[in-house]
TrEMBL record:
<dbReference type="GO" id="GO:0006071">
    <property type="term" value="P:glycerol metabolic process"/>
</dbReference>
<protein>
    <recommendedName>
        <fullName>glycerol kinase</fullName>
        <ecNumber>2.7.1.30</ecNumber>
    </recommendedName>
</protein>
<comment type="similarity">
    <text>Belongs to the FGGY kinase family.</text>
</comment>
<dbReference type="InterPro" id="IPR042018">
    <property type="entry name" value="GK1-3_metazoan-type"/>
</dbReference>
<dbReference type="Pfam" id="PF00370">
    <property type="entry name" value="FGGY_N"/>
</dbReference>
<keyword id="KW-0547">Nucleotide-binding</keyword>
<dbReference type="GO" id="GO:0006641">
    <property type="term" value="P:triglyceride metabolic process"/>
</dbReference>
<keyword id="KW-0319">Glycerol metabolism</keyword>
<dbReference type="GO" id="GO:0004370">
    <property type="term" value="F:glycerol kinase activity"/>
</dbReference>
<keyword id="KW-0418">Kinase</keyword>
<dbReference type="InterPro" id="IPR018483">
    <property type="entry name" value="Carb_kinase_FGGY_CS"/>
</dbReference>
<dbReference type="InterPro" id="IPR043129">
    <property type="entry name" value="ATPase_NBD"/>
</dbReference>
<comment type="pathway">
    <text>Polyol metabolism; glycerol degradation via glycerol kinase pathway; sn-glycerol 3-phosphate from glycerol: step 1/1.</text>
</comment>
<dbReference type="GO" id="GO:0005524">
    <property type="term" value="F:ATP binding"/>
</dbReference>
<keyword id="KW-0808">Transferase</keyword>
<dbReference type="InterPro" id="IPR018484">
    <property type="entry name" value="FGGY_N"/>
</dbReference>
<keyword id="KW-0067">ATP-binding</keyword>
């Protein structure tokens, strides 16, 4: 006999794969499916996805996850109450509202083809690189959607023609998915949420609406932009052509904001997600804190139409887990990502090797798009274990750089500490299963790192938002994480303080070696 329950579904659309996870009332996963999709690199620094392939990956994941849960005796057809969506942020799509066809591949968040547009704007605008920071909290950078949209408007004839005809729609991946899920060319709903909108460079952080002055300066037509909604409200319903028609879509957050919610981060608490990149966010409550140390001011979440917005300081790292993929796919040093822990554990140190994965430049807190990757300190003594460990350390050093800036921006009053006076970093994402990586992180920070029992907090955060909007959970239940934390694993630092300081100084020297290398001859 089928088990009667209440279920919430979560679409987690990442940089390399899509997942659909079904949660029960106790926020336990009862069915899931994951599909990897293709990443295209047509030129050095260019990274693209096929929007139609992403859409198909969602269809496959929903079908397979529902089938699995049903086969296990769960009555998903009758019990599924809502769907939440979380997605890779900044990745930009423009499509035709009459045909539903994407007019160009999705330009991915780490793509740096817009470098020349950034330089041009920095020269033309009175505020230079920081011209829009006061309104949107973001510097002019290849990272953000507005620059990718400008490139499409300037370089793709199909996009230009569609805009002129009034047939173009712009969105990040959340907008693309919701439009298609709610009917597509048959009255699909064109929206985005405040967290994704905050990453375009076009939304005013205080009004939570598109900034008219920015749109005018960049000559971006407002008509192609989606409506901005909160993270937890009924946005629309799944269309009849999908396996789960009529189910409300009631939660939507960018992946890093979803992870914050999944980790139940209150004001003063921070999380770091280790995926393709690494992303550290500190909840600053209802206060917008401008960064003076290379971080971004952004939305954390807004849990309902009339709910107050929580803001955050964020440090974004372009290459984290992607460096492990590079070791596997480009160098062949490992055959699977999981092998890196065993390889790195064969040595106690990197033997003086420092690796900085500035493949497409450096994000926070450096913001150097002229940087390129370096590996220094190599001797005849160096072997692949030293390099593997240096790759793991590079992820942790970058997180430390961001947290150092975060501590300076937030100050003592802006951070929550435990009874020992320690600031705890909550961690999540696939790479955190690597115990060696987590111990290195604690050692380099000189403070504890806390890993939850369920490390897939991004999908959980989207489920929480969706469930909150339809009454499955209350905010009190979502943020009451005392019981959950009893199952967490804490990594405490054991590295000698003097050695830690020396290693940090060597890392900073290695980072400086990456600057001004973008024009090296091929």
């Amino acid at each position: 006999m089928a088990k009667e329950e209440v279920f919430i579904g979560s679409i987690d659309q990442g940089t390399t794969s899509t997942r659909f996870i079904i949660y029960d009332k106790h926020a336990q996963a009862i069915g899931s499916h994951q599909v990897e999709f293709t990443q295209f690199c047509p030129q050095a620094g260019w990274v693209e996805h096929d929007p139609m392939e992403i859409l198909e990956s969602v269809k496959t994941c929903v079908t397979k996850a529902v089938d699995k849960a049903t086969a296990d005796g769960f009555n998903v057809d009758n019990g599924l109450k809502a769907i939440g969506i979380t997605n890779q942020r900044e990745t930009t799509v423009v499509w035709s509202k009459s045909t539903g066809v994407a007019l160009y591949n999705a330009i991915v968040w780490m793509d740096n083809r817009t470098t020349s547009i950034c330089r041009r704007l920095e020269k033309e605008l009175s505020g230079g690189k920081s011209h829009f920071v006061e309104s949107c909290g973001l510097p002019i950078s290849t990272y953000f959607s507005a620059l990718k949209l400008l490139w499409l408007l300037e370089n793709v004839d199909a996009v230009k023609a569609a805009v002129e005809k009034g047939d173009a729609l712009f969105g990040t991946i959340d907008s693309w998915l919701i439009w298609n899920l709610t009917g597509g060319i048959d009255n699909g709903i064109h929206v985005t949420d405040v967290s994704n909108a905050s990453r375009t460079m076009l939304m005013n952080l205080k009004t939570l609406d598109w900034d008219e002055s920015t749109l005018k300066t960049l000559k971006i037509p407002k008509a192609i932009l989606p409506k901005i909604v909160s993270n937890a409200e009924v946005i629309g319903h799944i269309g009849k052509e999908w396996l789960i028609p009529g189910i409300p879509i009631s939660g939507c957050l960018g992946d890093q904001h979803a992870a914050m919610l999944g980790q139940s981060c209150r004001k003063g608490e921070a999380k770091s997600t280790y995926g393709t990149g690494a992303f550290i966010l500190l909840n600053t409550g209802e206060e917008v804190i401008p960064s003076k140390h290379g971080l971004l001011t952004t939305l954390a979440f807004k849990l309902g139409k009339d709910a107050p917005a929580n803001y955050a300081l964020e440090g974004s790292i372009a290459i984290a887990g992607a460096a492990v993929q590079w070791l596997r796919d480009s160098l062949g040093i490992i055959r699977s990502a999981s092998e890196i822990e065993e390889l790195a554990s064969q040595v106690e140190s990197t033997g003086g090797v420092y690796f900085v994965p500035a493949f497409n430049g450096l994000f926070a807190p450096w913001w150097r798009d002229d940087a390129r990757g370096v590996c220094i300190g190599i001797t005849r003594f160096t072997n692949k274990s030293h390099i593997a460990r240096a790759v793991l350390e590079s992820m942790c050093f970058q997180v430390k750089d961001v947290l150092d800036s975060m501590h300076k921006d937030a100050g003592e009053k802006g951070e929550t500490k435990n009874e020992k006076g320690q600031f705890l970093l909550r961690v999540d994402g696939g790479a955190t299963v690597n115990n060696t990586l987590m111990q290195i992180q604690a050692d380099l920070l000189g403070s504890p790192v806390v890993r939850p029992a369920d490390i897939e907090t991004t999908a959980l955060g989207a489920a929480y938002a969706a469930g909150l909007a339809v009454g499955v959970w209350t905010e009190e239940e979502i943020f009451a994480n005392g019981e959950r934390m009893k199952k967490d694993t804490t990594f405490n630092p054991v590295l000698d303080e003097e050695l830690r300081k020396k290693k940090v100084a060597s890392w900073c020297k290695a980072v400086e070696r990456t600057f001004d290398l973008a024009d090296l001859s091929l």
